[in-house]
Automatic annotation (TrEMBL):
Coiled coil: none annotated. GO terms for molecular function: RNA binding; RNA methyltransferase activity. Residues 34-164 form the tRNA/rRNA methyltransferase SpoU type domain. It comes from the Bacteria. The lineage of its organism: Bacteria, Bacillati, Actinomycetota, Thermoleophilia, Solirubrobacterales. This is tRNA/rRNA methyltransferase SpoU type domain-containing protein. It comes from Solirubrobacter ginsenosidimutans. InterPro entries: Alpha/beta_knot_MTases (IPR029028), rRNA_Methyltransferase (IPR051259), SpoU_MeTrfase (IPR001537), tRNA_m1G_MTases_N (IPR029026). One of its GO terms (biological process) is RNA processing.
Length: 170
């Protein structure tokens, strides 16, 4: 049997799940600009069983239509109001807000616990990050340690690392 067909069989045996709307893990890349990053995050949502929440703007509608390479895509929750108000409203409903961002009070990723309560993960713009007031309003901020000279990771990489951790898969 060839390596390719071995892999196909392994995939069939191990990827038996189908996406259901997550009632506990939602990624909200509310300020992300590049289509490719949104497409990558959508694949991570599928992998960890999370949903995605984004503004219902032409930018996100187009980016997610283009970046969707999955047979069946994860749930996308379209915001029905302005971003900041939506985050506040979810918080009032009992969701814990985790901002993935460098901040004075950020906890380091290895110390982040698995999400045991409904959690929304905020991700920032590729050049300006998450707006300061949203970082301040979050329940938890998480920073991914970096040893190199780069100032930050690609946002889809950062989001994926945090989602894997919160989902208890890494
Ligand atoms: C490319 S970074 C933005 C960097 C921006 N120049 C700044 O200094 O805020 C885009 C997003 O990825 C996430 N990110 C990237 N690297 C990170 C890290 N090491 N720790 C936490 N979040 C990170 C954050 O959500 C950030 O807003």
């Amino acid at each position: 049997m060839s390596a390719a067909s071995d892999r196909r069989e392994l995939r069939l045996a191990r990827r038996t799940g189908s996406h259901r709307c997550s009632d506990h893990l939602v990624v909200a890349p509310l300020w992300v600009a590049y289509n490719v990053n949104l497409g990558t995050l959508l694949r991570t949502c599928d992998a960890v069983g999370a949903c995605m929440a984004v503004p219902a703007s032409p930018h996100y509608l187009e980016a997610l239509a283009r970046g969707d390479t999955l047979v069946r895509r994860p749930c996308i929750h379209w915001l029905d109001c302005e971003r900041e108000r939506w985050v506040e409203a979810q918080r009032a409903l009992g969701w814990r807000i985790v901002a993935v961002e460098l901040a004075e009070r950020s906890v380091s990723l290895p110390r982040l616990e698995v999400a045991r309560e409904p959690t929304i993960v905020l991700l920032g713009h590729e050049s300006s990050g998450i707006p300061e007031e949203m970082v301040d309003a979050a329940d938890t901020c998480v920073e991914i340690p970096m040893l190199g000279v780069g100032r930050s990771l690609n946002v889809a990489v950062a989001g994926s690392l945090v989602l894997y951790r919160l989902a208890g898969l890494a």
